[in-house]
Amino acid sequence: MKQFLSQLILSLLFLTGTSQILSAVTISGTIKDKKNQPMAFANVFIKDSYDGASSDVNGNYSFTTDETGTITLICTQLGFIEQQKTIAISGDMKVDFYLDPKENEMEVVVISAGTIEASDEKRTTVLKPLDIVTTAGGQGDIYGALQTLPGASKVGEQEGLFVRGGTGAETKTVIDGMNVNNPFFTAVPDVAARGRFSPFLFKGTAFSTGGYSAQYGQALSSALILETQDLPDRSSSSVAISSVGVGAGHNHLWDKKGFSAGFDMNYTNLAPYFLIVPQLQSYTRMPQFFGGSTNFRKKIGEAGLLKFYGYYNYGDLALHRPDIDSTNGYESTFALKNSNAYTNLSYRNYFKEVWRMDIASSWGFDKNNIVAEADSIESQSSLSQGRIMLTRYFMKRNQIRFGTEYQYLSDESRFNQYKSVFFDNYVSGFVEADIFLGPKFVARAGGRVENSSLLAKTNFAPRVSLARKISKYSQLSFAYGDFYQKPANEILYRSTAVNFEKATHYILSFQHVDDSITLRVEAYYKQYDHFVKTFPTIDNSGDGYAKGFDVFWRDKKTFKDVDYWISYTFLDTKRNWRDYPTAVMPTFASTHNASVVIKKFIPKIMTSFGLSYNYSSGRPYYNPNNPDFLGDKTYDYHSINLNASYLTSIFGAFTVFVVSVTNVTGFRQVYGYRYSYDGSRREAIVPPAKRSFFLGMFMSFGTDRSKDVINNNN
Predict the structure, then answer these.
(1) Which residues have C-beta within 8 Å of that of residue 68, sequence separation ≥ 6?
(2) Engineering a disulfide at 362: which of 60, 344, 349, 473 sits with its beta carbon 3.0 to 4.6 angstroms away?
(3) What is residue 688's three-state secondary structure?
(4) 682-685 vs 178-179, strand pairing mode
(5) What pLDDT is recorded for position 431?
(6) What span, in angstroms and rounded, lies between the C-alpha atoms of 62 and 492?
(7) DSSP bridge partners of 242
(8) What share of the chain in percent tops pLDDT 90?
């Protein structure tokens, strides 16, 4: 909840309007296929311009332009042959298009094992940005919504995305090719932190639960691949007022120059909310946060694009709670001040229609000042990165990618008077090719070389994926690969005489995807090697495994104006690592995880309703009174969540009222137990409140976007 406002401000920027253009003409028309059926969501635009629109569910489109003279209109739709028409502008005009399908477009196989893709519509479309912010219980957070997908486990007391038996640190977030070192807000004890970034900053969310591309590394379990938006199609402004704070933002498009720039600012203070919803913790300094970001995007030449995104956030809080080791009512204290910054600059361009170049750099900084009882803890880290990748296209669909990246990590920690510092120069290179061996069979093969100066070690990680089309809408896929990751910082502070930790992935999947139904069944096995053990000595003698299967079903058309999905994950995993005396299921893993998400949009009252149910079986926890290590398990986890959004217009501004409630029925949710030093007393680790809610009003200034919202929900 503490950063819900800042996420939703960005999330609702899609509801903004267009600046009015003087002396503009309107170009409109209808797009149909060769059977005279209307085509929804086809794109029409003026060549060498950013003027254009997408067709609605009836195939109609309309947009304004201040272009004059003779222009070329281009109409495109996935799976259909592009069509161009040259016209002379003479006032408002009507131009219709009839598109022919590409031969065998639906017969072409694509690589998919281990990946849930939401940006490339030729692959499995699962979560778009609008899906994320309208998922009940997700609270507008990318990571919260992804917990409703197969492979993810519900861990509510610490930050991170826990996938197929992996820790939160074993899932990496990548923005425009660059690793993000601190994608979550700094957490307070026993409370999971939200992600820092809005889903509507990105044009797609690719969630790889394993077997991911050789382009990326340093993640034993999974990778969340995010790509920021390109040039917006209009200027936009927004204002938000909610139960947790206020915010405002503006993005301006200079259409003729192919340039846009913008900013947003938000302030969150949870004091009013905590008065209404009492928390388990008692705050002596109420949580408050200030954040802001800026961006620009510039078209370079005919096909190049330069993008920049910069972000800063500051947070401050202090709390106290009963100390389980105290028998006289003593309360322990915790205070946190956090500063975080992130910048990302990327450039891409195409050359001679067969080459693509991607160059990116980023810098991230995170600083924490913590006071826990009489102890003072300071941590500070910065990560600088650079990356270049070249892609060569040949023989239509085939391509080869190769590139290199460099990272410089500086990390410093101070516990009272004790200080630890380390630096690392990380260099990697990769090559990967997609080869089509016919329209129904494709192979992806490649590898990645990585070197760490801190570890003084080098590794090579081969990766292979295969896919075979078995029907018009269905295919089988297989993926294999080795994945390496540096040990956690707390290990490196104690010793650098360790090696990379390693995971080998084997994934077999079946998927069926058509216009209305998505079915995905995937079996997986992960073998862990070289886990760091911290007892009796620090070395890489640990190991483990994770195996199981996922099922995902999504249906958008069986019930009118209803979109729903069901996911289930079975997990069998054990680890012998860190100070574990034997191989057991770790505390962050659960055998069964399931989710049901339902969304209903009612156009007559311009209201969207959402419901979700989340279930996880009990997780192991340490009981010092049980000689069986991690032999006890918590209660099963249940949560029913509701949300609703009402669309209207106030003072000419398109306005959305949002309300959401998590754990509506007040299920008791226990993430684990904490024991006193002598083992005689214990307390449950539970959420800070049984239920949470959010109320907000978001206003967008410009053209009413109600139709766009209706189309998105359809």
Answers:
(1) 89
(2) 344
(3) coil
(4) unpaired
(5) 98
(6) 59
(7) 696
(8) 58
- The SS3 of residue 272 is helix
State the DSSP code for 353. T
Locus of tokens 């209803």:
562
Give residue for tokens 């017969």.
107
Is the Cβ–Cβ distance between 476 and 467 less than 8 Å? yes
Q: String of b and e for 649-675 (b: at least 16 CB within 10 Å)?
A: eeeebbbbebebbbbeeebebbbbeeb
Closest alpha carbon to 309 in 361, 383, 238, 387: 361
Residue 164's region, left for phi above 0, alpha for psi from -120 to 50, else beta, is left
Mean pLDDT confidence for 169-192: 90
Which residues does 33 contact at the CB level (< 8 Å), separation at least 6?
A: 39, 80, 98, 99, 100, 101
- Cis geometry, peptide bond prior to residue 586 (ω within 30 degrees of 0): no
Q: Which two tokens stand for residue 634?
A: 């918590």
Using DSSP's 3-state secondary structure scheme, residue 6 falls into helix
CB 663 within 8 A of CB 213: no
SS3 state of residue 114: coil
Distance CA 620, CA 486 (A): 26
Q: Exposure of 582 by Cβ count < 10 A (0-12 exposed, 13-18 middle, 19+ buried)? A: exposed
How many C-beta atoms lie closer than 10 Å to residue 294's C-beta?
A: 15
Dihedral sign, Cα of residue 274, residue 278, residue 279, residue 284: positive
Distance CA 700, CA 707 (A): 14
CA 310 vs CA 181, 263, 364: distances in Å: 15, 9, 10
pLDDT winner (highest mean) among 42-46, 257-261, 391-395, 447-451: 447-451
* All residues at 6 or more sequence positions from 618 whose CB lies less than 8 Å from its CB, including other chains: 590, 633, 634, 635, 636, 637
Phi, psi (degrees; rounded to nearest 5) at 62: -165, 140
Q: In the structure encoding, which two tokens stand for residue 542, read together? A: 């640990």
Indicate the length of the chain as a whole number. 714
Catalogue the E-assigned strands of 453-516. 457-469, 474-485, 501-513
What's the CA gap between 213 and 216, in Å, rounded?
6
Q: How far out from the chain centre does Cα 363 lie?
A: 19
The Cβ of residue 491 has, within 10 Å, a number of other Cβ atoms equal to 17
Find, among 307, 385, 309, 388, the residue nearest to 342 by Cα: 309
Q: What's the chain's average pLDDT? A: 87
Strand partners, 250: 237, 263
**CA 30, CA 94: separation in Å to the nearest integer?**
8
Tokens of 570: 């079975």
Alpha-carbon Rg of the chain, whole angstroms? 26
One-letter amino acid at 276 equals I
Which range among 360-364, 412-416, 449-453, 693-697 shows the weakest confidence by mean pLDDT? 693-697
- Taking the C-alpha atoms of residue 635 and residue 77, their distance in angstroms, rounded to an integer, is 49
CB 214 within 8 A of CB 162: no
Kindly report the three-state secondary structure assignment for every residue of 546-601. EEEEEEEEEECCCCCCEEEEEEEEEEEEEEECECCCCCECCCCCCCEEEEEEEEEE
Q: What is the pTM of this model?
A: 0.81
User: What is the token pair recorded at 606?
Assistant: 């311009």
Q: Decide: 614 and 638 in contact? Cβ < 8 Å.
A: yes
Confidence of residue 702 (pLDDT cuts 50, 70, 90): low
Spatial separation of the C-alpha atoms in residues 35 and 311, rounded to whole Å: 49
8 A C-beta contact, residue 555 and residue 565? yes
| Token output for 548 | 């199981």
**Amino acid at the residue 641:** N
Q: Which of 279, 207, 240, 137 is nearest to 688 (CA)?
A: 279
What distance in Å separates the CA atoms of residue 619 and residue 586, rounded to the nearest whole number?
8
